Amino acid sequence: MKKEAQLITGVITIFIIVVGLLLCTVTIEAGHVGIYKMFGKVSDDELQPGLHFKNPLASITEMSVQTQEYTMTYTKGEGAKHGSDIISALTKEGLTVDLDMTILYKLKPSKASDVYQEIGIDYVNVIVRPQIRTIIREVVAKYEAKQLYSEERQAVAIEISEKLEPELDKRGIILESVLIRHIQLPAQLVNSIEQKLVAEQDAERMQFVLRKESQEAERKVIEATGIKDSTEIVQQGLANSPEYLTYVWLQKLENHESVVYVVEGNLGIPTFTKEIN
Question: Are 26 and 38 in contact (CB under 8 A)?
Fold first, then answer.
């Protein structure tokens, strides 16, 4: 009986030690920090990844400091919200456009405790989402709809990033990137813009054709001038020359298959006869 009592006591002791160790230690996963809270008070020092000892009465809340994305889209299942979460904004001329966007961000490790105390673990819906939507609408209002449809869309993304970054930074959040996935304009406006772009391309093509024709005309003028000058030289210097007449005569005869010719005499004047088959 004594041995059995000692065995039971030993098992209980080991169990208490194991439970005590579990209550007194905590492991913070990579890419996270731990928020140390005891009796409602939050420590200013975040727990870094690894094994830590703690008071058994303290609680630890892990918060991710990895890059995260927040997507607002009309496609169900792709965004942060289950349903459609597209951003509607008014352009400079008062037209409504819908933006499909993704924001990449992460929590500052050194500010995790402050964010936890001031905002809570749902800081994305409390801070990130409202700031994104407010600044996007503010920036879009400065552009015309046709600018959002063109290459200036990247300029819009850059301006949104420049305005959003300091707002998130002062709340302990790092903005990494603003990605405009899609901008949906009114269908009638899209058709008008596309027609205008086609007209501009046609105009540029016509200007190219006109430049090409002008260059060809200049080439022909230069060619004609050269021929004219050459002719004048021939007429002035060689027109009455027997050698030149012989040269012209031979050129006329060289393509006649039925004619053979022989150059005779001092002047080189050719005589020709018909070929006998």
Answer: no
Distance, in Å, from the CA atom of 158 to the CA atom of 113, rounded to the nearest integer, reads: 30
State the first-to-last Cα distance of the chain, in angstroms, to the nearest integer: 143
How far apart are alpha carbons 137 and 90 in whole angstroms?
Answer: 7
Residues 174 and 89 in one domain: yes
Q: What is the DSSP letter of 186?
A: -
Q: Which of 154, 136, 141, 147 lies closest to 99 in space, CA to CA?
A: 136
Domain that holds residue 7: 2-64
Please say whether the beta carbons of 86 and 99 come within 8 A. Answer: yes
**Are 9 and 87 part of one and the same domain?**
no
Look up the CATH number of the domain holding residue 111.
Answer: 3.30.479.30
Tokens of 146: 């046709």
Contact by Cβ (8 Å): 216, 237: no
Q: Domain count of the chain?
A: 4
This prediction has a pTM of: 0.59
Domain boundary among 64, 87, 118: 64
Q: What is the pLDDT along the chain (277 residues), one digit of tens a residue?
A: 566 666 666 666 676 666 655 667 888 889 999 998 888 888 888 889 988 888 878 888 899 999 998 888 876 666 666 657 778 888 888 888 888 888 999 999 999 999 998 888 899 889 988 998 899 899 988 888 777 777 777 888 889 999 999 999 999 999 999 888 888 776 666 566 666 666 667 677 778 777 877 887 777 778 777 776 666 666 665 555 666 666 666 666 666 666 665 655 555 555 555 554 5
Return the structure tokens found at 144. Answer: 């015309």
To the nearest 10°, report the CA torsion of 217, 218, 221, 222.
-140
Helix axes 129-140, 153-169, angle to 10 degrees: 140
